[in-house]
């Protein structure tokens, strides 16, 4: 009989308030999975008139998923506040419990442009500790911590299977949702990303806009076995970060959404606090690496809740090669 998520969370080694919070997040994601699976039958596809703080048109399921997570997690005693891609400002939990220890950040439905065309999407979440003088009502400043501080992070991918992958800093575990019982059943508690790979994930239509280190790296991969890499590469791009990262978590690879010249004043497309940081924590805990063009993603010092960042993550050997190319480009001539 497979280990259930509840058994895994109560087996010890995870602070009880955090374990309870993770169980609440997982239950909310099981509800989101049921909604996603219904699709058009549930009259929940399509876009709203509204835009989120990113200026992106909101899908009905974006807002439904966001509200579902807020409502479910507000009841978790360990929570002092929440932040979401879909909300301009933080959502303090009121009244704050004496047991409040954590802040929860999430992208409730990442890849939502894929919803209406039935391609995998996902939820990404990050758990940060509250400041030492807690419990008190959370402020936005409490959230602006480097990803290295995370107490937990993970994602749920709503694909052919619904799979939860998360870490609390002691390795990475994966669970699959059994739709018959709504139970999360453990697939592995020791995810390990191969150091080497022959697969990269990037939106190649932006090639002419990339900085030289990224362009050089991809050109070397495309040159194949007769080029500097001495091996042929394969390319994947789902345009749903959760799906692309999950493939890398399960079989290796490298994912890039780097800075590009289309918006030179923007560090990247993806958001640091609730996309890059949680994914970087999972990837590092599974033996991979994550780089933001200047240093490890998890060391980036946040200046804003919705700030964007360049993302290069996955198999360690490839991320190290990208870091070396960036350092060489920055080195004095
Ligand atoms: P593009 C989805 O909108 C997302 O935020 C990530 O999930 C995904 O990796 C990326 O944007 C896709 O961006 O420019 O290829 O559509």
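^ Assign residues to that structure.
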């Amino acid at each position: 009989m497979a280990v259930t998520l509840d058994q895994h969370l109560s087996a010890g080694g995870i602070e009880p308030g955090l374990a309870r919070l993770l169980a609440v997040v997982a239950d909310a994601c099981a509800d989101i999975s049921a909604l996603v699976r219904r699709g058009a039958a549930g009259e929940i596809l399509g876009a709203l008139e509204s835009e989120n703080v990113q200026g992106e048109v909101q899908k009905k399921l974006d807002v439904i998923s966001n509200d579902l997570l807020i409502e479910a997690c507000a009841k978790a005693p360990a929570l002092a506040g929440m932040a979401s891609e879909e909300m301009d400002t933080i959502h303090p939990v009121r009244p704050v419990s004496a047991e409040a220890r954590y802040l929860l950040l999430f992208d409730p439905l990442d890849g939502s442009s894929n919803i209406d065309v039935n391609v995998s999407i996902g939820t990404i979440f990050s758990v940060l500790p509250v400041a030492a003088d807690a419990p008190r009502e959370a402020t936005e400043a409490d959230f602006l911590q480097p990803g290295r501080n995370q107490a937990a992070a993970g994602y749920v991918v709503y694909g052919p299977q619904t799979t939860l992958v998360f870490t609390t800093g002691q390795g990475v575990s994966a669970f699959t949702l059994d739709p018959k019982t709504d139970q999360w059943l453990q697939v592995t508690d020791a995810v390990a990303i191969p150091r080497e790979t022959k697969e990269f994930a990037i939106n190649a239509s932006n090639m002419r806009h990339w900085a030289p280190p990224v362009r050089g790296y991809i050109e070397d991969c495309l040159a194949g076995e007769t080029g500097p890499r001495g091996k042929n590469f394969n390319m994947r791009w789902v345009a749903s970060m959760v799906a692309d990262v999950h493939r890398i978590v399960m079989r290796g690879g490298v994912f890039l959404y780097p800075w590009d010249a289309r918006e030179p004043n923007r560090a990247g497309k993806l958001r640091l606090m609730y996309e890059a940081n949680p994914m970087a924590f999972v990837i590092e805990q599974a033996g991979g690496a994550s780089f933001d063009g200047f240093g490890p993603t998890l060391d980036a010092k946040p200046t804003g809740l919705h700030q964007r960042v360049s993302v290069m993550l996955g198999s360690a050997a490839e991320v190290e090669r990208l870091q070396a190319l960036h350092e060489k480009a920055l080195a004095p001539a």
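The chain has a mean pLDDT of 93.
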